[in-house]
Amino acid sequence: MAKAKILDIKERTKWVAPDKSVQTLVVTYETAKGYRGTIRDIPEDASEGDIWDQIRRHMKTKEHLLGTEKELE
């Protein structure tokens, strides 16, 4: 798996009901190969390890596909 760097972490208010909201995180990252991704709705109390696990899962498929070619019909 390639290296990744966290570029930005923002707090976001997510409305779950008309009178109830929760704070979540939006994390933007970039891989060494140049892929940029954004993960939304991470719980505000997530640990650093949880955030890196979500980044790892999010980029797994995309990193695998980068640089591959396939002829489409």
TrEMBL record:
This is Uncharacterized protein. The lineage of its organism: unclassified sequences, metagenomes, organismal metagenomes.
